[in-house]
Amino acid sequence: MDKKQFQELMERYNNGALTVSEKKQLYPCHVDNAIIMAAGTSRRCLPISEILPKGLFKVKGEVLIEREIRQLKAAGIDNIIIVVGYKAKMYEYLKDKYQVTIVYNDDYDKKNNVSSIYAVRQYLGNSYICCADNYYAENIFSEYAYESFYTCAFTKCYADEYCIIENDSGYIESIRRGGQEQWFTIGANFWSRSFSAKFVELLEKEYGAPEVDKLLIDDFHIRHFADLPITAKKYGDGIVLEFDTLEEFEAFDPEFKKFEKEVIAENLYGRYNGVTRYAGVRTNNRNGRLHFNENLWGPSPKALRPFHEAEAEDLFLYDSKESDDLCMAIAEKYHFPYESIFLHNSGSEMVRSIITLMVGEDDSVLLPLPHWSYYPGVVDYRFGKKSFYRFHEDGDKCYHDIDDLMRKAKENKPKMIIVTSPAMPSGNLMKPEDLERIVKHNPQSLIYVDQAYFGFEEDPIDVSGFICKYDNVMFARTFSKFFAMAGLRLGYGVASKRALETLWLDLPLLRLPIIARRGVIECLKDDEYYHRIRSEIHDVREWFYNELTIMENVHPYKSDTNFIYMKITGVDAAGVREEMIRKGYLFRIFEYGGEQFYRINVAPIDIMKDFMVKFRQTFEEVKRGEVS
Q1: Beta pairing partners, 134
Q2: pLDDT, tens digit, for every residue of 186-205?
Q3: Residue 71: CA atoms inside 13 Å, Cβ hemisphere, count?
Q4: Which of 185, 438, 504, 569 would you label with 8, given CA atoms 20 to 30 Å apart?
Q5: Angstrom distance (rounded) from CA 202 to CA 593
Q6: Count of beta carbons in the 10 Å neighbourhood of residue 628
Q7: What is the residue-wise DSSP string for 462-503?
Q8: Whole-model pTM?
Q9: What does 320-335 look like in DSSP terms, one character per residue?
């Protein structure tokens, strides 16, 4: 088949009139594949190319290499091989998205791009040789090609490009660097099977020689021009584009500067995409707040005294005394070693600090399920791995499943294990022997015991005994719950001296607010007040539990805290909650194991009686379908 016959057949092909026999005639000219060169570093496009390889730059809303792949596929060329090197992993997504083959050029940083052709030499046949960073204003590719060619454009002004000189037969007889008023090579080349075979033969003979390793593909071709005949396929101005610098991108695409800004921002912050920040339910309502587990009896009235008696120097001076008065008060009240106590801005800040210190990328953290959603949120922004152990029901109580915890710890070897005692959200205290089993048999893990709800019941765990015996356990408490000082955001922890050597690294640099600490000290001293409200909370909690037990569709669990956890069945639990919000009451809903649960704070009796009336009424309305 001569060139004229080929052109006639291609005309029929383009018109959709090609017969089966004509298609067979064209077959020797069928394109086998396309090789896209994407291994280079593109140093002239710094600083963006330090973040993203040039083939992944976005131009006029399209990723360069993706646009090229789509054009190749639209032309009927589905077998596409991409040669990668610099930032190779960033191209990996193309395998699934476009079903391309990725080939790694391990020499991209040591040799010139002739090494990329060497890496894919076994694929070469009737092949397009493309660059990942070219932009084609129109699709220049075809399913069939007659002979090898360079894609060429014309330059009137001087250009530092590979300029061609053709002979009378239409073949390129020479190429030299730089010229004006000339055609020059740009964009994709096409190599016939015979051209590819000869190129590979020559390259395999010479590859590894220092003078060859430094060559561009074009230079290697020039070195063997007599053995590798090739033609020119010429395109008008603006059809085939090549961008060497950021300025050239910006001149072509007015939106490219915006893309540059996005790339830089993504590089700085992009690893946090999809990591969400925990936030409690927002409300301006100061009543009906049964979702935060606040102590709605309020703090000791004596807690206000330091605020009334504050002096100016309490505001403008740092507390630089040898010892911390609040730590001393805690040590005295609970018989802890003073040097084992540390203060922090609330229990949630302790969680954040400890996970930040202990958990690195890919470290495992073992969490209860269900749980306070802040725990996995902090693990996520540390890029740790999460695993979970179960709770299990035991009649009228709901406990940590210690056997499941131990199994999961053995499987995942976590850097941290978080346990809650009293448990959140079920509200039950952990047995000391269960905690010791966890601590003793997981020496490779820090056991973080969150005791946020300490104080509502007598806790059987001997904290001092644990921290004296073990370095891999710490206890965290807050003044927000039992002591009803949530607005001050103060908490404390207890740990061994060895553990504290590390924990100090992320504790507040200076002591917590002077007046706030004095207010907490007054609370610690006021045993009479807290004994009284503890008794009242017990009474209301018992009344609330009994009221819930006589309701259909509600199974409450006994609690050692100031809230009740309950299973909801046979009714739209989310619908009930939404209607109760409209009636002025907020509480938490949990979903676990395909079942739904509420966690409801215990408040003074007048509030709870009003709540129960509306709660029962809402259940009935939802069951009857009266509430949408």
Answers
A1: 242
A2: 999 999 999 999 999 999 99
A3: 23
A4: 185
A5: 66
A6: 7
A7: -HHHHHHH-SSEEEEEESSSTT--GGG--EEEEE-HHHHHHH
A8: 0.73
A9: --SS-HHHHHHHHHHT
